[in-house]
Structures are given as structure tokens and as C-alpha cells.
Design a protein that fits this description.
Number of strands: 8
Bound molecules: zinc ion
CATH architecture: Alpha-Beta Barrel
Shape: globular
Helix content: 25-40%
Order of helices and strands: EHEEEHEHEHEHHEHH
Number of domains: 1
CATH class: Alpha Beta
CATH topology: TIM Barrel
Number of helices: 8
Oligomer: single chain
Length: 245
């Protein structure tokens, strides 16, 4: 199995990533990817772009250097109700939305993360029509009731992300990632394998994730970004606000 689209990547706009859109797409072309999702962090993350950055993606071609380019965001889930840090005007126009929890952006002044509060948070996120992907939900700090929530993700059309950063540099998340993948397999929940690349050289390299999926005999038909036809089917069926090809 190999991934044909890397749908969670960052550029210098995130200020802690180091490639331009041009460099990321060029790399995607060089390694033969069909598509790339550019998903810089939403404004709640320190140093990350404001709303207006996300409003001018019409300036970028939808296909560039032969690569399908989806311009989106990694929106921050900022409270335990599952709200995101981008306004409706942005969300209506973004082509691809990964929603993730990050320590610096979650308001923990009222509620602290527990299995119960994180379960409620993810059940709320599952109801958010804008979200395509539940990003790296394998953090032990934000553990939730996987058995309860993952079937709801599947039912609501949310892709569960297998994020390769877990295998490259977040070893404390590996165990939960495997548990999540096994439950996805059991309940037939579609997943997406992404690199979360913060530099060009990481793009498309998801060997750790793919090896883990192979080891648990994960059914390839549940991996949305392999092959092209399955990925295209997802885009068509989910009625995304895609720019014209
Ligand atoms: Zn993230
Ligand atoms: Zn990211």
C-alpha cells in the first residue's frame, strides 16, 4: 500500500514549518503524489496566520505542476464543545479541514481533559459539518473512549487520521494510535494516512504508519488516500467547496 495524497502538511505560514507552498507542491510532484493538502494551523496557534490568510486561496491554482492542490487548514479545537478557531466565512470556503487538539490552543480554564471530557469533545466535533479529518487523536493527554466515538466518526463521515509524526517523533502516542487503528478496522471506519510534514523532505513518507497498518492486517479499502479512485470518490461524495480544476 502507498499513499497517493498527503492531506496534512504545513508551510512557512505556520511559522514553525519551513517550506513554501511552491516548494511543498514541487516536492509532491517530484515524488509522484496525486494530491497535496496544505493545512496550515488556524489562528489560535501561536505565530499562525490570521483569518485573511485563509481567504485568498483562489490565488493558487487547483492543479499546479501536475499535482492536485487542496487549500485548507488544520483548525484548532479550542474548547470542550468542539468549536474551531476559524469563522464560518473561512470554513465555508476551505477545501479541506483537519481538526486537531493542541495543548497551547485548548481553553482548559473551566474543564480539564479526562476520558469523559475528551469523549464529549470528540462527539461534538463529529457533529461539525466542516470537519473532514480528525487529526492525530492519539495523544495520551487527550485520550477518549475510542470504542464509543470512532463508530460515530464513521457514521458522520469524519476520517480518522493516522498521523505519521506519531511514528517519527511522538513515541508516547504509538500505543493509542494502534488501538485506534484496530477499532477502525473492527467497526469499518475509514482512515487517512498523513505525514503532517513541516518540511518538504517529510512529504509522502509514512512508512511507520503503513507498516503498523500492515502488521494489524488493516483493510486497504478503508484507507481513503490510496488509490486515486478512492480518494476522488471521497472528494465527490463529500460535496467539498473545491476550486474549479
Ligand atoms: Zn497538529
Ligand atoms: Zn499539523
Amino acid at each position: 500500500m502507498k499513499i497517493i495524497a498527503d492531506m496534512h502538511t504545513h508551510t512557512i505560514a505556520s511559522t514553525h514549518a519551513y517550506g513554501t507552498v511552491n516548494e511543498m507542491v514541487r516536492q509532491a510532484a517530484d515524488i509522484g503524489l496525486y494530491a497535496i493538502g496544505i493545512t496550515d494551523h488556524g489562528p489560535a496557534m501561536p505565530g499562525c496566520p490570521r483569518e485573511w490568510y485563509f481567504n485568498n486561496f483562489a490565488a493558487i491554482p487547483s492543479t499546479y505542476l501536475g499535482v492536485r492542490v487542496l487549500m485548507g487548514a488544520e483548525a484548532n479545537i479550542t474548547d470542550f464543545d468542539g468549536n474551531l478557531d476559524l469563522p464560518k466565512e473561512n470554513l465555508d470556503r476551505l477545501e479541506w479541514i483537519v481538526a486537531s487538539l493542541h495543548l497551547p490552543t485548548l481553553d482548559m480554564s473551566i474543564i480539564k481533559p479526562t476520558i469523559e471530557t475528551c469523549t464529549a469533545l470528540y462527539l461534538n466535533a463529529a457533529e461539525n459539518p466542516y470537519i473532514n479529518v480528525i487529526g492525530h487523536s492519539d495523544s495520551p493527554f487527550f485520550a477518549y473512549d475510542y470504542e464509543k466515538v470512532i463508530p460515530v466518526f464513521a457514521e458522520k463521515g469524519k476520517l480518522v487520521e493516522i498521523n505519521d509524526a506519531t511514528f517519527k517523533r511522538k513515541r508516547d502516542c504509538v500505543e493509542n494510535c494502534i488501538r485506534i487503528a484496530k477499532i477502525c478496522k473492527k467497526v469499518g471506519a475509514p482512515v487517512i494516512v498523513n505525514t503532517d510534514a513541516h518540511f518538504m523532505t517529510d512529504l509522502g513518507k509514512a512508512e511507520g504508519s503503513l507498516r503498523m497498518l500492515e502488521e494489524i492486517n488493516f483493510p486497504e479499502e478503508l484507507v481513503v488516500n490510496s488509490p486515486v479512485e478512492r480518494f476522488e470518490k471521497y472528494l465527490t461524495e463529500h460535496n467539498l467547496p473545491l476550486r474549479q480544476l
